[in-house]
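Lecture 7, part B: from sequences to assemblies.

Below are the input chains for today's worked example.
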Amino acid sequence: MSMQDGQPARLHLEGISKSFGGIHALEGVGFTVGAGAVHALLGENGAGKSTLVKILTGVHAPDSGVVLLDGMPCHFRSPMEARRAGVVAVYQDPKVFPHLDVAENIFMGIHPTSRLGTVDRHRMYRRARELLAGLGVELDPASLVAGLSIGEIQFVEFARAMTEGMARLLILDEPTASLTPAETGRLFAVVRRLRARGCSVIFISHRIEELSGLVDTVTVLRDGRHVATLPAAGLAEAEVVRLMVGREAGAPINRARVVGKERLRVERLGLAGRFDDISFAVRAGEIVGLAGLVGAGRSEIAQTIFGVSRPSAGHVFVNGQPVHVRRPRQMLALGVAYVPEDRDQEGLITPLSITHNLVLPIQRRLARAGILRPRFERQLAQSVTTDLQIRSAGVDQPVASLSGGNRQKVVLGKWLGTMPSVLILDEPTHGIDVGAKAQVHDIIERLAGEGMAILMISSDLPELLRLADRILVVADGRMIREFARSDATQEAIMQAATTPRRRAAE
Amino acid sequence: MHDAFGRKESEGQDSPSSKAAGLPLPSPSRWVRVQSSAYDLMTTYGLAAILVLLFVVFSLTMPDTFPTRFNIESLISEQAVTALLALAVMLPMSVGQFDLSVGYFVGLAHILTLGLQVQFALPWPLACAAVILSGVLLGILNGWLVTRVGIDSFIATLGTGTFVYGVASWYTGGKQILGNLNNGFYGINTMIGTVVPSPALCVVVVAILLWILLEYRPLGRFFYAIGANPRAAELVGISPRRYIPWTFVGSGVITALAGIFLASELRVGQTSVGPDYLLPAFTGALLGATAIRPGRVNVWGTVIAVMLLAVIVSGLEQTGAEFFVAPLFNGLMLVTAVGLSISMARRRAKIAAAANLAAGSDAR
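Predicted structure of the full complex, as structure tokens:
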């Protein structure tokens, strides 16, 4: 039994096991979270983090094992019970009521009432203001949630977690996945404030590098088992990755690419109200990174080049020829492909099979005399899935049944068949686990090695630094700086990307 | 049921699939695969099996009236129109669009077929050609409203359909269209080789053409891709704006054909004919999405579903059920068909995720 200064630990887990239909999601997991500690829970997708969160919040009951909260055994039967005991989870995409205001969201279902049983709006707004102030968050309780950023919506959830008094244990499930660096900074400030007030925080994340300075202890899970619990101080990132993946990560990147002719050139491109005066070029075999904050206009630039939106100014050249493109189809015909950020909504046709998704761009070419050749298509898909290590029960499985990393590999695999001369990637590794990420990096490297010109948007700076030959930084719809790989650092890019916002000042 | 409702099949199944990546498994589940293929077999041919079963049951319980040549012939020719209309609504459904104008346009089409011959003295082939042309025009209009103006297809086709109904009523003035018709026109609704009614042959021909188009031509894949995710289709160069109108045109042409056969069968033009066909047509297409190619609307599923509905209604009527049993049954079936597709989609997703899980562990 672990004790801190004679006090029982805030949370103590011992031998937690849980299986679903004969599949062990967790096996004998145990670790301890101190009172007022920030504890990182790391692991690849499928390592068992989500199951553990669900056990802590009473969504699932463990098959065996002990959960002690401040030394008392607890068996929550629902998230409501856990909440009452001060254990609350906040997810990366909180479910809120966008058409209601902040205070109403905080008190949804637990509205303060007057003696007549009507909602006491005055008290509700006063309490909401107090809660937000307690978090150190500047948010108007009367503003509509629809207008808030994801980061601010998370703060609304935090406030909601505090309605019963200070939470004992706050679980943040990948809270930074969709946050801008600035929002992440605000989130961390709030987490530090909570820690100072004695709240313990379990912080689940994929972005290991961001946790230094915030986290006290790190626990790594792998394949449902507890791998290690270590003090965060002095823990190297590579060591954490090794623990998560169970092998050395970050194989050396092949730098020996031959950079050839210019494939894509953009001159003074603009889209009214979104971005302006963007000029750059990408050559064959080159990977050009596009860095910037979320909302800086990076995706809009990519989509305008690809013909989703029509530019209001400037020119696009493909292989030296000016093009006036109105539809993605025309751009594809010119050999330019685009991999959107949101793979499920835009990149894939999830109900269709792996085969059908993979061959969709070359469907016509694969047909003989206008008749499809399913067997040939399947063979082709088979070779692509083997090549890219796409794990599935077969190429006839719907893409919807794959994990995130495997889905992204299907998206990329689509373009192996067409071999476009220019490939635009929008956040190619967003939300996929470490192992799959390395594989996606390998694929991107390989495509560039085969002479593709690649423009890669990414918010993941280590990824850009690892892959890109040059990095362009965009802020507020303008090109701020261009870095060669040799003089790019995370700090320099961040500084350029957060150049004071003109628009905010206007 | 993504094709019919623009909703994704994958809803709410992210958790099992995201677990697929790295869980240790006790044993590679051959059971999962057996289960998966048994389920595939059941869903693929279940509807056809029920059809055969019911036919046998009705034939055994009513040997004197049900399995007679007369009953089967009239069943087939009556259902030819419904089957054509079910195929007509199925085509836009493959791209995720509804065509409600079908039920009204079949009324106008059969009135026009007769009216052009009786009142304008057009030779019957010309009258039929004119009706088919009007189907093309209506399809272009629907496609334009949906893809260029951007009106939801449900509303756009409800609008054009009601308008078409108004035109039909205006034209007939509420009266029947009667008159002498050319024998050649009657000839299009006849027995071919004394066994197959010609409307049934037309259904078979249309079905085969659509089947080749949807299952064996790249275009069919494009349709299904658009139906499942128009945005993703656009980004791989399959423009919904470009392909959706064709499905409405196809729907209009098939509906026009149905109208022509209806005219040759009824020989009287009435505005009230038509809307009654809409629901059975949709039921057929939606119920058809649960068979043969489960999870999406498809040709043979649709044809089997229409036949199944016809056999049930005819069987019920012969056992002495009242006239109102048909709509009662059709309404129930529509809801059941959609409910069935949704639960089947969920189950398929579960099985697929489990199968991937098993495969993932094998690969380790």
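Note for the exam: Chain B touches chain A through 55 residues (CB under 8 Å). Keep this in mind when comparing with the next example.
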